[in-house]
Specification:
The protein is an alpha+beta fold and 378 residues long. It has helices at 18-27, 74-87, 121-125, 143-148, 156-164, 187-200, 204-216, 263-274, 281-287, 366-377, and strands at residues 4-7, 10-13, 37-44, 47-54, 68-69, 238-240, 246-248, 260-261, 317-320, 326-334, 337-344, 350-356. The radius of gyration is 20 Å and the shape is globular.
């Protein structure tokens, strides 16, 4: 393994091969990029490369296999547990979630302006449910409110109720007719988290630990739940307050599904998943099957062979690289962090990358795009 150490403003590789030099250049943060730091792991035939750059705010170097908050990569963990329950015949993907969580979704009103009809578990997994996103319609929070509220904690039931039965605004209805379109939506996976807890009789964290973390020996992956602390060493996450000052927001709570991990553990989890070590064949097929429906907006599903069509499957996202391979994976963000993991379907090449953010643009960090293109197109 070529060791790579991060220093402020420059990524340095030891005994780098030509391909590794290109990766080291790709992971180097540019002066106009808003990220404070980046860590990465790229694996492929004869390649096991680690990289980092930063921390540009503190001036301290970053270890490439530091812990970070994975954001929506936790959706892949959620999908695996749900698909395992399906393989055990404890849930049916084509049955309405209302059969398992009576009353969780408000029934459709007489005039159709609020509430919901039947929503299948498969539609939750593939984000074709038509449910609104978490807290849709609520006023946007200020930067200071976001920073201050990072220690708040909501369980799955509270998240669903706050979104679908808000106290300060009309109750929402379908964003689109169920099953007719796809739109990236985190509420789908919070309903799935609630479902997992109800069907299993255990906490979401216990199910993930017993089904994924312990069997794969992911010793550096945690579901912190109510514990806001980060393990050492970790990538420091930053957020900018209303005065423009950077605040260390590494310590935070959030939701029962939030996951803290490292690039090596994330790579090991996805390797096991892609190589059919976690799911039976019928459920494995769900990972790589996108629904044949339009994608609703232009924020996602941009790099697809069929423009405007769905790109999310059960827990994964498909990207057809221009002039290159089709890759599958997941990106995600928490306050102060953005991460991604993508691989070829045979897992012959994989990339895990995480950044420490200094803004909340919502766009993929340039360094992430640059690294993915270098790793998969070179």
């Amino acid at each position: 393994m070529a060791a790579l150490t991060g220093t402020t403003g420059i990524a340095q590789a030891q005994a780098a091969e030509p391909g590794e030099k290109a990766l080291a250049e790709a992971v180097r943060l540019r002066p106009d990029e808003p990220q404070a730091g980046v860590i990465a792991h790229v694996a492929g035939p004869g390649l096991d490369w680690w990289g980092s750059d930063g921390d540009r705010h503190s001036g301290r170097p970053i270890r490439p296999d530091s812990a970070y908050r994975t954001g929506s990569v936790d959706k892949t963990f959620t999908a695996v547990v749900a698909l395992q329950l399906a393989g055990e015949h404890r849930i049916d993907l084509d049955r309405p979630v209302q059969d398992y969580l009576p009353g969780a979704l408000p029934p459709r009103s007489a005039d159709g302006s609020s509430g919901f009809g039947p929503v299948t578990i498969r539609q939750l997994l593939t984000m074709t449910s038509g449910l609104p996103d978490i807290d849709a319609g609520s006023p946007p929070a200020t930067p200071d409110e976001i920073i201050r509220e990072r220690f708040a904690y909501r369980d799955f039931t509270r998240i669903v109720d706050d979104t679908l039965r808000p106290r300060d605004r009309p109750w929402p209805g379908e964003v689109f007719p169920t099953g007719t379109q796809q739109e990236y939506n985190t509420l789908n996976y919070r309903v799935l988290g609630d479902l997992i807890e109800r069907v299993s009789g255990h906490s979401f964290a216990r199910e993930v630990r017993s089904r994924i973390l312990r069997p794969l020996r992911l010793d550096h992956t945690f579901l912190p739940e109510r514990d806001p602390r980060m393990p050492q060493p970790h990538l420091v996450g930053y957020a900018r307050d209303s005065r423009g000052d950077l605040v260390d927001v590494s310590a935070q709570r959030g939701e029962p599904n939030f996951i803290t991990s490292t690039p090596s553990d994330v790579q090991r989890f996805f390797a096991a998943l892609f190589r059919s070590q976690l799911l039976a064949p019928a459920q494995q097929a769900e990972l790589f099957a996108t629904p044949d429906v339009p994608y609703r907006d232009k924020r996602n599903c941009i790099m697809v062979a069929r423009p405007g069509r769905a790109c999310f499957s059960a827990g994964l996202m498909r990207a057809d690289l221009p002039g290159g391979p089709t890759i599958w994976g997941k990106s995600g963000s928490n306050l102060g962090y953005t991460g991604a993991v993508f691989a070829t379907r045979d897992f012959s090449r994989s990339v895990v990358v995480a950044t420490s953010n200094q803004d909340r643009s919502g766009s993929p960090p340039p360094v992430t795009i640059r690294l993915l293109m270098t790793a998969f197109l070179n």
